[in-house]
Amino acid sequence: MKLLIDAGNSRVKWALHDADAWRAEGWVENEAIAELAQAWRDFPVSRVIAASVAGPAVAAALQAVAPCEVEWVRSEASRFGVRNHYHDPAEQGVDRWLAVLAAHERCRGDVIVACAGTALTVESLTEDGDYLGGLIAPGFRLMLTSLAAGTAQLARPAGAVVDFPRGTEDALASGAMAALAGAIERARDVLAQQTGRARPMVLLTGGDAREIAPCLAAPLEIVDNLVLQGLLRVANAS
Q1: Which DSSP symbol is given to 163?
Q2: Residue 217 carries which DSSP code?
Q3: Residue 26: how many CA atoms within 13 Å on its side-chain side?
């Protein structure tokens, strides 16, 4: 049984897959990694394959609780017919690369891959397998935290996302959400201009995916654990 781990800036997400199907999954905050030893103890894990953008301390903590040696995956110049046009693939967050690999398997046409977590990443992938690059922006809560820290009057809870905010709390929530949705929609328009084809599908994943989805146009699909799906592709090929 394979244990797949996606270590992000705030959370560690994991899933177990045998030769046939996903068997279990879960997540913990990065501060609670020690709890994973108990979560994994009853599973016959034969391999641990992981990706991390969280830094060496998180990687060391995961190795300490893993049932066997962790195999760390990195971004690459190409894999599975996808060509990475990043200037230096080694500096690219591996979660972004894995999400693109999973999207290429899932979608035959052009696709925008948006991962909405602590940060928002927006990747552009053509139907021919050219990964053209992507955007990185603050995620929803990070935007609000930055506004609270950098302005005198905005250190307050966010309100509701509405079309016409008539109060500061709603203006904060609506402005942050509009910025996230706008980044995704602009990437979609730019990719369509580049390819000369129709506006592409958006695959949306991450903890804030369901909050952003109502602000986006079709075609759109929410996909849970897209990074783990890409990780499984790599694990099965090695």
Answers
A1: S
A2: P
A3: 13
Structural domain total, the chain: 2
Active site residues: 95
Contacts of 78 (CB under 8 A, 6+ apart): 84
List pLDDT tens digits, range 94-119: 999 999 999 999 998 999 999 999 99
- What's the whole-model pTM score? 0.93
Domain with 89 in it: 78-231
Q: What is the CATH number of the domain that holds 26?
A: 3.30.420.40
In this structure, the answer to whether residues 101 and 39 fall within a common structural domain is no
The answer to whether residue 213 is domain-embedded is yes
Span 1-36, pLDDT tens digits: 999 999 998 899 999 999 889 999 999 999 999 999
Whole-angstrom distance, CA of residue 158 vs CA of residue 175:
10
